[in-house]
UniProtKB/TrEMBL annotation:
<dbReference type="Pfam" id="PF07992">
    <property type="entry name" value="Pyr_redox_2"/>
</dbReference>
<protein>
    <submittedName>
        <fullName>Dihydrolipoyl dehydrogenase</fullName>
        <ecNumber>1.8.1.4</ecNumber>
    </submittedName>
</protein>
<feature type="binding site">
    <location>
        <position position="50"/>
    </location>
    <ligand>
        <name>FAD</name>
    </ligand>
</feature>
<dbReference type="InterPro" id="IPR001100">
    <property type="entry name" value="Pyr_nuc-diS_OxRdtase"/>
</dbReference>
<keyword id="KW-0285">Flavoprotein</keyword>
<dbReference type="Pfam" id="PF02852">
    <property type="entry name" value="Pyr_redox_dim"/>
</dbReference>
<feature type="domain" description="FAD/NAD(P)-binding">
    <location>
        <begin position="4"/>
        <end position="339"/>
    </location>
</feature>
<dbReference type="InterPro" id="IPR004099">
    <property type="entry name" value="Pyr_nucl-diS_OxRdtase_dimer"/>
</dbReference>
<keyword id="KW-0560">Oxidoreductase</keyword>
<feature type="domain" description="Pyridine nucleotide-disulphide oxidoreductase dimerisation">
    <location>
        <begin position="381"/>
        <end position="485"/>
    </location>
</feature>
<feature type="binding site">
    <location>
        <position position="111"/>
    </location>
    <ligand>
        <name>FAD</name>
    </ligand>
</feature>
<dbReference type="InterPro" id="IPR036188">
    <property type="entry name" value="FAD/NAD-bd_sf"/>
</dbReference>
<dbReference type="GO" id="GO:0050660">
    <property type="term" value="F:flavin adenine dinucleotide binding"/>
</dbReference>
<comment type="similarity">
    <text>Belongs to the class-I pyridine nucleotide-disulfide oxidoreductase family.</text>
</comment>
<keyword id="KW-0547">Nucleotide-binding</keyword>
<dbReference type="InterPro" id="IPR023753">
    <property type="entry name" value="FAD/NAD-binding_dom"/>
</dbReference>
<keyword id="KW-0274">FAD</keyword>
Length: 494
C-alpha cells in the first residue's frame, strides 16, 4: 500500500515521536528514513557525546571529595566501548521493532515532496532501502510532517573543506583518540567536545570567535573557559580562523588565526581538526521547491507546528507540518520532541475520527496540548561541560531586549549547606530573572556540577508563572544544593 493518512519524512527522535502521536486516533502512518531510525541524536550526537563526557565528570566529582583515592586517568578503551554499547554500534533494529510494534510503517530511502501530499522515495546511499533501486511514490490522505533535522555548517575558510575536518559525527564516533585536537567554534559542540577530548587525554586547543557559549549568560561561558583552561585546554577567545592547511591527507593540520583586532597571524598545529560552527536546517533536498517553498530557508511553523508558508488543502486545513531542528526554532532533542508531541496530537485530532474533533485544534488555547507555547519563553538547554551550564527562558540581555523589566537575583552555589557537604570549594552560581511587574520568574541559569538536574524546578516555575510569594512555600530539603532556591528567594526580598 503506498497511500497512508500521514507521512513523516525523517525518523530521528522528533519524527518518531510525531509519528507515534499522530497514529493514536487510528490514522495510518509511514515514516521515511534515509539513514538510521533514531537520527543524529542516537548515533552521532546526544548519546555518544554524553557517554564520552560522563566518565570525566564522574572522575572529577570523586577527586573533589576528601578521602577518595585519586581515580587516575580514564580507561579510554572502556569509555569508547561504553559509547558503542549505548549507541548500539549503529544498529537500529531495536528502533525498527518499536515502530513495528506501534503500527507505524517504515520506508527506508530518501524522501522528497513532489507536490501536495505526495512524497517520492529514492534509494539512499548506504541504506538497505525498501525501494529496491526503484523510485516509490507515497501519497498522504491527510498530512505530511517534515522532521529532517539539521546538518553541520562548514564555513568557507580557505583550505578548510580540503583538510577534511571532523564534524560532530566523526568526533562522537571516534575509534582512537588523537594526540592533539584543534576545535574551531566556541558553541555547545565546541565546548563539550573540547571537554571530552581533554578528559580522554588529547592536547586540545579551542578557537572561539567571541566568548564561549554565546547563547547562555556571559558568566556561564566565563566559568567554562576558566575550567577548560584548568583542565589544560588552550582556550583562545576573540580569534578569527583565516586559513587551514593539511599537506598530507590524514596528517597534521595547521590553522591560522588572527585576533579580532587583526593582530597575528598565529598558527595552531594539531593531529586532528573539529569544525563546530553551527548547524543548518536540512531543507535543501526535501522537494520544498515543488510546493513553492524556499529550499534554503528553515521551515518556519506556527504554534500548532503547521508550516506557515505552505498552502492549505482543499478543505482549508494545513496539510504540511514540521518539527525539530528543521524548523530552525529549536536545536535540542527535548524541545524538538515537545514540538513533535504537539504536531502529532494536532494531526491525530484534526484528521482522525473523521475530523469529529477538528474544532478542538482550531479553538485551542495557548496552553493546550495543541500549541507549542513553551517555545516562546521557556526553552531549556543543558551543556554537559564541567561545570554544567543549564538554563531556561531568555538570558538577561534577551529579556531586556524584549522589553521585560527584570531583576537579577544571584547566589553562589558553594554558599549553601548542601554544597558544603558535597565537596570543598563547590563551584557555581544560580541566577534567576524576576519580572519586576508580575513578580514571577521568567528565566534561570545554573552553572555547577550536575546543574542540569536542578533545572526542571526552574522550568516548572517559569511555565507555571508561579508567583514568588507562593514559591516561598516550596521548601527545599536540607542539606541539598537545591537549597539555593531558598537563598535566592531570600535574596529577592522574601
Ligand atoms: C554533538 C551533538 C550533541 C548533541 N547533544 C544534545 C544533547 O545532549 N541534548 C539535546 O537535547 N540535544 C543535543 N543535540 C541536538 C540534537 O541532536 C538535535 O536537536 C536532534 O537530533 C534533532 O532531532 P531531529 O529528529 O529534528 O533531527 P535528526 O536527529 O537530525 O533526525 C533527522 C532524521 O531525518 C533523516 N532525514 C533527513 N532528510 C531525510 C530525507 N529527505 N528523507 C528521509 N530521511 C531524512 C535523517 O537521516 C535523520 O535520521 C546535540 C547535537 C550534536 C550535533
Ligand atoms: N547539550 C546539548 O543540548 C547540545 C550539545 C551539542 C549540540 N547541541 C545543539 O547543536 C547545535 C549545534 O551546535 P554548535 O556548537 O555547532 O553550534 P552553536 O550555534 O552552539 O555554536 C557555533 C559557534 O561557532 C561560531 N562560529 C560560527 N562561524 C564561525 C567561523 N567561521 N569561525 C569560527 N567560529 C564560528 C559561533 O560564533 C558559535 O560560537 C546547537 O544549536 C545546540 O543546540 C546541543
Amino acid at each position: 500500500m503506498d497511500t497512508f493518512d500521514v507521512i513523516v519524512i525523517g525518523a530521528g527522535p522528533v519524527g518518531e515521536n510525531a509519528a507515534d502521536r499522530a497514529s493514536r486516533t487510528g490514522l495510518s502512518v509511514a515514516v521515511v528514513e534515509a539513514e538510521l531510525v533514531g537520527g543524529e541524536c542516537s548515533y552521532w550526537a546526544c548519546i555518544p557525546s554524553k557517554t564520552l563526557l560522563r566518565p570525566g565528570a564522574a572522575r572529577a566529582a570523586a577527586a573533589a571529595v576528601p578521602g577518595v583515592a585519586d581515580p587516575g586517568p580514564l580507561d579510554v578503551a572502556a569509555v569508547l566501548a561504553w559509547r558503542d554499547e549505548r549507541t548500539g554500534e549503529g544498529d537500529d533494529s531495536g528502533q525498527e521493532q518499536w515502530l513495528d510494534s506501534a503500527g507505524i510503517a517504515l520506508v527506508r530511502g530518501h524522501g522528497r515532496l513532489v507536490g501536495e501530499r505526495t512524497v517520492e522515495v529514492t534509494p539512499a546511499q548506504g541504506v538497505d532501502d525498501d525501494v529496491d533501486g526503484q523510485v516509490r511514490r507515497l501519497t498522504a490522505r491527510c498530512a505530511v510532517v517534515v522532521a529532517t533535522g539539521s546538518a553541520p555548517v562548514v564555513p568557507p575558510v580557505p583550505g578548510l573543506a580540503e583538510a577534511a575536518p571532523w564534524t560532530s559525527r566523526e568526533a562522537t564516533a571516534v575509534e582512537s583518540v588523537p594526540e592533539s585536537l584543534v576545535v574551531v567554534g566556541g558553541g555547545v559542540v565546541g565546548c563539550e567536545m573540547a571537554q571530552a577530548y581533554a578528559d580522554l587525554g588529547a592536547r586540545v586547543t579551542l578557537l572561539a570567535r567571541g566568548t564561549l557559549l554565546g547563547g547562555a549568560e556571559p558568566f556561564a561561558g566565563e566559568a567554562v573557559a576558566a575550567s577548560l583552561r584548568d583542565a589544560g585546554v588552550d582556550v583562545r577567545l576573540g580569534v578569527e580562523t583565516q586559513g587551514v592547511e593539511r599537506p598530507e591527507p590524514g596528517g597534521p593540520v595547521t590553522v591560522t588565526v588572527t585576533d579580532a583586532d587583526g593582530a597575528g597571524p598565529a598558527e595552531v598545529t594539531a593531529a586532528e581538526l573539529l569544525v563546530a560552527t553551527g548547524r543548518r536546517p536540512r531543507t535543501g533536498d526535501v522537494g520544498l521547491g515543488s510546493i513553492g517553498l524556499d529550499p534554503d530557508a528553515p521551515l518556519a511553523v506556527d504554534d500548532s507546528t503547521a508550516v506557515v508558508a505552505a498552502d492549505l488543502d482543499g478543505a482549508g486545513r494545513p496539510w504540511l507540518y514540521a518539527c525539530g531542528d528543521v524548523t530552525g526554532s529549536v536545536a535540542t532533542t527535548h524541545q524538538g520532541k515537545y514540538q513533535a508531541r504537539v504536531c502529532g496530537d494536532v494531526v491525530a485530532t484534526r484528521f482522525g475520527d473523521d475530523g469529529a474533533r477538528a474544532a478542538d485544534v482550531a479553538d485551542a488555547g495557548a496552553w493546550s496540548r495543541y500549541r507549542a507555547t513553551a517555545d516562546h519563553g521557556a526553552q531549556t538547554q543543558v551543556v554537559f561541560t564541567r561545570p554544567q551550564v543549564a538554563w531556561v527562558g531568555p538570558t538577561e540581555a534577551q529579556a531586556r531586549a524584549a522589553g521585560t523589566d527584570v531583576e537579577v537575583v544571584a547566589y553562589a552555589l558553594g554558599d549553601v549547606a548542601g554544597a558544603g557537604v558535597t565537596s570543598p570549594g563547590y563551584p557555581g552560581r544560580a541566577q534567576l530573572l524576576v519580572d519586576r511587574e508580575r513578580r514571577v520568574i521568567v528565566g534561570a541559569t545554573f552553572v555547577g556540577p550536575d546543574a542540569g538536574e536542578m533545572l526542571h524546578a526552574a522550568t516548572i516555575a517559569v511555565v507555571g508563572e508561579v508567583p514568588l510569594d507562593r514559591l516561598w512555600h516550596a521548601v527545599p530539603a536540607f542539606p541539598t544544593v537545591s537549597e539555593v532556591w531558598l537563598r535566592l528567594a531570600e535574596t529577592a526580598g522574601l
